Predict the structure.
Amino acid sequence: MHISLACLAKPVLHGYFRSSCSWRVRIAFALKGIEYDQVPVNLIKDGGQQLTDKFKTLNPMQQVPAVEIDGITISQSLAVIQYIEETRPGPRLLPTDPKKRAQVRMICDLIASGIQPLQNLYVIQKIGAEKVQWAQHFIERGFQALEPILKETAGKYCVGDEISMADICLVPQVYNAERFKVDVGKYPTIKRLNQTLIEIEAFKVSHPSCQPDTPADLRA
Amino acid sequence: GPVLHGYFRSSCSWRVRIAFALKGIEYDQVPVNLIKDGGQQLTDKFKTLNPMQQVPAVEIDGITISQSLAVIQYIEETRPGPRLLPTDPKKRAQVRMICDLIASGIQPLQNLYVIQKIGAEKVQWAQHFIERGFQALEPILKETAGKYCVGDEISMADICLVPQVYNAERFKVDVGKYPTIKRLNQTLIEIEAFKVSHPSCQPDTPADLRA
């Protein structure tokens, strides 16, 4: 049997403590019980460390997260998470039923395509002075859609009673909403789910307040 | 059979049309005109299908799914026919990475809703985000592509690429600057599934835009 040395190395997450997309990957690693190393990429310092030529070779899109795992580098948090799901044992991150899987992916994509990209650092820097209203607008728009969807799909968690990628996407997005002063109380299902999820160990250990690169004034 | 609520020129709707065509699945279309009547996606009726008020939304097997990639993966997991994702997990990750670069990193920044909000500078805004994405996609595809985006089998990456190139051309981005993207697109647009699903020949294609 041939074992690649790359598979024996720990995965390496290039991320930022407060990047919601990086947090998704940290949650997934924690849920699966996978140990990994972190290489912080400070999105603000030095004009943004994601813009170095060195990081560009890891991810030409110049965004976090980028994950080195099993000898390859994967960017796009949901691609990373599904790769982990398909190659590591442990609790499922996607249900077995295809219709429930579709619901999980729909919720993930509503967040990962319909909300977060419209309020990430790059875009709001481009918007300029109106950035807070812009971010609030797109988060509210997304949550207004997500609330009735979750009301239909949710049990204890976003889709039924098992934790899934939908939960992994939801919690960091609620964190972003709170950073932009969106009143999440207007979305009772989102609020309820988030309150349940943030008490779970995998969501706590991966929280932005306790990462290697969390600044002292933001540490829990 | 399945019902696709979409718009002829919506790149996300086109992705779903390609997937149906590749799998040989017959389906009905209910056009949702994004411009007429202030935008038919904004009606209360459509909102019940998709609270996000976007196309596509697909009624299939008794449920309604929005988000094109969720629809396509559902089709992949429930219908036989040519694979839309490779078997190897690393290649699957590369396919998904390319899909998400387009579906999260480019298209949402240049879709109708956003550019209407941007207003007067909309063309420059859209060009900027498409160019930014293509500048990243080009070196990625140079590494992953064989005959198609990832190796030599058609995948969801190809399904996402072609409609995004169409959007780029609509915004007058010079795709020739991205030789791998250009080469792949030229190969793919000759394939039947990409032709029958093209915006120029849908039930709701206006007469002046018909092929």
Summary: The longest helix of chain B spans residues 122-144. Strands of chain B lie at 3-6, 28-31, 57-60, 63-66. The two ends of chain B are 27 Å apart (CA to CA). The interface with chain A takes residues 50-54, 61, 63, 65-67, 69-71, 73-74, 77-78, 89-90, 92-94, 96-97, 99-101, 103-105, 107-109, 114, 117, 128, 132-133, 135-140 of chain B (CB under 8 Å).
